[in-house]
Amino acid sequence: MKSGSNLEKVLEAGHFAFTGELGPPRGTNAEEVRKKAQFLKGNVDSVNITDNQTAVVRMSSWAASLILISEGLEPNFQMVCRDRNRLAMQSDILGAYAHGIKNMLCLSGDHQKFGDHPQGLGVFDIDSMQLINMVKEMRDEGKFLGGADIEDPPKIFIGAASNPFAEPVDFRVHRLAKKIAAGADFIQTQCIYNMDRFRIFMKQAVDMGLTEKCYILAGVTPMKSVGMARYMANSVPGMDVPDSLIKRLKDAGKGKIAEEGIKFALEQIEEFKEMEGVAGVHLMAIEWEHKVPEIAERAGVLPRPTF
Amino acid sequence: MIVAKRKPFEEIKEMLKGYKKVLNVGCGTCVAVCLAGGEKEVDVLNIELDMAGKLDENPIELGAMTIERQCDREYLEALDPLVDDYDAILSMACGAGIQFLAERYPHKPIFPAVDTTFIGVNQGVGWYEERCRSCGSCVLGLTGGICPVTMCAKGLYNGPCGGTNKGSCEIDKDQPCAWYLIYERLSRQGRLDNILKFSPATDWQNQIPRTLIQPGYKKSEEV
Ligand code: SF4
Ligand code: SF4
Q1: pLDDT beneath 70, residues of chain A
Q2: pTM of this structure
Q3: Does B43 lie in the same domain as B113?
Q4: Closest partner residue to A113 among B171, B187, B202, by Cβ?
Q5: How far is the CA of B131 from the centre of ligand 1 (A)?
């Protein structure tokens, strides 16, 4: 065991993992975090806590992670490279681990231009690849990036993201390989809608032997409306939403679109359970946390394994 | 070259408030080429200032002098006999030139007439684009001659990120993704292995004021 986190145990034992996501509040209301956490408790193995997602200021990821721990859930502490330099990142990792955080997801982060402080300085002292490697060196070699020894190194289960859909598409599997070589133990992919493309990506990953070195969790976000599908298709960079899905949602008719979105997600999850190399699903039902119990139930992933 | 743009007229006027005699110093190198602060721009600005002064019934007496380079002591010397005749100096050089001027005449108030913008290239008349952030450890040999520090909005050394949008950067449809271009170029050259390798964290060289003495030279004694 690298970290002994619940997520690592689930994956090591060969179970099909099921992880969730929670966005911290734009304020100080811990109750809001607790309320969302209740929908996830017992239904997922670990909960990603986003880090100033879409470059909008929110309660810090590690702080919301601690609230989650106090509620008896396991957080997956997300860290982006946009907001901190290498010193701040490493000290946050030490502090987070000292408080019981065992999983991390290492990301570049959306550009600050998108958020509520577009005039801010983007730090990007190191990039996501270098962050993954830094956490690995901290854990396995007990060394800070600067080379000094760490007393009692943090034992983190290292996650990274992968987008199989963004251009240049042919390079994406190689970038995945690079992240794994840098130290990623598990991958959570971008929301998948183009299943054809994802099947090709997974086949490449399997053929390159990547799925033997790393657990890949397929990203799923149920569509709530046609508007959301269109927005994702047109306005979210790197997102691939086929027209056929938009049509399918439209055809479902008024009042039934959200249900159709969930049905599509459930079909995806069924396929992922069988797909070679897919070790689980990462369900990103942001601001739809109350739907997670129902989705988990209908996806047949309950009860979650306990150790 | 170093690219600059002239400051808004109102801002310049505001800085010069209260000064009666101002020497406007142009620079004949980068800022002249990019049409921001050469001889012609000095004349234009002086005409504007003169007119505004007259309109406001608060005339300024303006001098004009454009030297080859404000970042070079050799050329600054030519200003020595003039400076004492003026209350203030306006410089149209880049930030480096302006500072060198201020250093030479520490008793005189010095004001910038341009905003120094970037190190860039000439894409067409009056059209410039940034290309280099002078990071101090150039990786262009690895990245197919495309700078990831400058041209990638996140300055990634191991791109592309997941935001690449059909070849554009996530920040703007009109901004090409630098890493998409790097990939394309290296792929055409059969050199993709360059970016399959992990690039470790950068040793930033530009975090303190830098001094460079070329091999075989020393700091001159009389400074
Ligand atoms: S890598 Fe980019 S910023 Fe650095 S010296 Fe080369 S061109 Fe300039
Ligand atoms: S889309 Fe391309 S240029 Fe823009 S931040 Fe990502 S890698 Fe850099």
Answers
A1: none
A2: 0.96
A3: yes
A4: B171
A5: 8
